[in-house]
Amino acid sequence: MRVNSYRTRKQKTAGMIRYSCGILFMLFSFCYLYFLQGEILAEAQFVYSRGITSYDMLLGAIITTMVLQIVQWVVATASGLPSRWHALSYLPSMLILAILTNVSKEVLVDFTLGKWVWIAPSVLLFYVLFVFGARKFCDGYSVYASDLKSQTYPNYIILFILLLITGSVSRTPDVYYYELKTERLILEKDYAAAVEVGKKSLRTTPRLTQLRMYALERQGLLAERLFDYPQHDGSQGLLNVADTFFYNRISSQEICAFLGAYCGKNVKTASQYYQLVFADSLWNRHTVDYYLCSLLLDRKLKEFYDKLLLYYNLSDTIAGAYENLPKSYREALLLVGDSDYVIQGKLVVGGDTLAVFKDKDIVMQFKDYHDRKTGLSNETERINKTHREFGKTYWWYYDFSHLAKGELRKR
To answer: pTM of the predicted model, to two decimals?
Structure first.
């Protein structure tokens, strides 16, 4: 009777360990694959299949988790590890998961296993040796074999360490993750969600900026919210016609088609592209906003003002003509006009009063910005303090963004 009771307790303990470790592993694997690594896996499948197949993040996470669980079951059955070391049967599955998710842009462009070529065989060799030693020297019939606490704690500790190591292997930078998620949301036509990805981060890339601006213009908000985001690359961050890498699911050609015409191979710059589109009357309202915003980003205020009059009717006979302009254009006009009259709410160019701004709030904000800027003598302090309050205005971009390129200066 005592023998049967001992065997029953031992079986229950072993079953508890198997089921609890299995549940913890599958929860980790699914969440890790779906929430954290889904974007990079979708990009990897697109690149490696040359765009022939696509990756479903939910289905992919479920299938991969089930396959890894099957691998663990096979390893556990073949190895015959004692219950005390059961969590180690997840090591091969964890190794496979780490290799699958250890993907970067460099790996996608030029596929290579890198250090895994020697790390993976080495880990597996030590693993086989440990399993052999555990089976030979571990006493599976000791009194502790049926004690739940003495069996579960080592397993949970081992499993936690394996999960921690696997989760720390991934080398996908946050900003690259933002690129991939923004790209996916655009493909799903969820433009409002796309422009919210990584919005609070000061870090960006030319590719991420281009995708964000495209998503904004898809909503007709490019000129309104242009400076809600870091702009470190001028007009090239708005449209880079040379951005034709095969691994991009949304290429610059797709953006150009949206603007009126595909970009020819002989076209090397966005400026050249705009000239050709306008010359051939292929432009649309999106082309106009892209072009005008590119002039703002390159600080070509005089040219911006001249072109603005060509595409926007700002006649004083039209009520609210200036007030209805997008935010970026209205802010730029305050820099175009004579500074002595701007604080009075008047747009004076070349001695001619072209308009009186009815929007007093923007005039007062510009005055506050001017006072704050001129009231600080230290350049680093001036850049950082004005950015906190006016960092999303064209005024701050025009005066300081080239000095604080990449990130704000440290205090």
So the answer is: 0.86
